[in-house]
Amino acid sequence: MIKLLLASHGDLAYGVYSSLKIIMGEQKNISTLCAYNKEDFDLKKEVWKIINDLKDDDKLIIVTDIFGGSVNNEFMNNLYRDNLYLVSGLNLPLVMELMLIQDESNIDSMIQNALETSIKTIKYCNPIIKAVEVEEEF
Distance between CA atoms of 37 and 23, rounded to whole angstroms? Predict the structure, then answer.
């Protein structure tokens, strides 16, 4: 089974998941890791628990908030496992695209496709609206 883990510093992961549920409904294969919300939080222990709870046939796509951040780096330490796939740059369009992955045999290219598609949703809107305003003047 393909599973998705959203992991962030603070509550960003849960916030993205909350928005996803509003748009796509409840999802069984998604979980969150919101790091450092408690003083005694142990990132290494939490990551170990998540990875060791996976079944042999599970594939886990992990989406972290910041490349090079502590959350991302802790998961990078485990990429020797061939059932883990790590992506940084957590955002809602990316998660929505990753939710569509069903084919376990082609997971690498599907992740790459999800990245390319979600990147197209990042826009600076001011020039877009200004272009529309100019067109409407004619």
Answer: 26
Average pLDDT over residues 31-59: 96
- Residue 24: which pLDDT band, with cuts at 50, 70 and 90? very high
Sequence-distant (≥ 6) Cβ neighbours of residue 68 within 8 angstroms: 88
How confident is the model at residue 137, as a pLDDT? 64
Burial of 26 (0-12, 13-18, 19+ CB in 10 A): exposed
- Between the alpha carbon of residue 48 and those of residues 9, 12, 43, 44, 116, the distances in Å are 17, 21, 8, 6, 30
Q: Which two tokens stand for residue 4?
A: 């998705």
Provide the residue type at 130 as one letter: K
Beta carbons within 10 angstroms of residue 114's beta carbon:
22
- First-to-last CA distance in the chain? 55
